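Pipeline run #58 for the internal structure catalog. This entry was flagged by the ingest filter as a single-chain record with no existing model, so it goes straight to prediction. Upstream metadata was stripped on purpose; only the residue string is passed forward. Reviewer on rotation: M.T. Logging verbosity set to normal.
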Amino acid sequence: MIRAVLFDKDGTLIDFEKTWFAVARELALEAADGDEQAARRMLDAGGYDFDAGRFRGGSVIAAGTNSDIVGLWYPGLEGEARAVRIAEFDRRSAEAGARNAVEIEGAAQALARLHAKGYAIGVATNDSTRGAELTVAALGFAPLMSAVLGYDIVTKPKPAADPVLHFAEATGIAPEAIAVVGDNAHDLEMARAAGAGLAIGVLSGNSGRAELEPLADFVLASVAELPAFFEIDRA
């Protein structure tokens, strides 16, 4: 029996394209020393499809951490210089992500209905913990959250099991009673690795049905469908 729901953030609770493209472009331009074409190549390598006008599912920007992005855009950095750059990406993306966050339509209502019915709710993201905390606060979700987990709070981030296991420990709820909801394969791989009770894919982010169905127990259009899925709207 499911007692808790652990959500991905970007593409699941917030609109990834509307929230993150401007931020990613600014950071890419800086990495390219202001060269527009070089920045475009960096964004393409990071996963932005300029023809489609969206980030590719499973790409470094869509699914990776700031450490992964720094590794891609600043391949020569090592040691302290690399750590400083990652910390700077964490700080700037945290502030800009919260400032620009656009909620997936219906997310607030779905979270409120789940919380009111007694489900423990959390967020697990490959963004930084501070970035996730600032965003859920900006959108008014913070009072509903039992835990907000970024890549920097666990030993191994998604697709490893660690975020689910950390959430289970924080809430006292076994992994098999936790549903994981996400828009990318690495969210669902995390659910499988941890033995989560349900792996639910949503089509509101970077990945299509063909990418999610092999890993998901169910695929929904968005988190707005969760109250009906859990029969809350019919209770």
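catalog note: The chain has eleven helices and eight strands.
catalog note: The chain has a mean pLDDT of 95.
status: ready for reviewer M.T.
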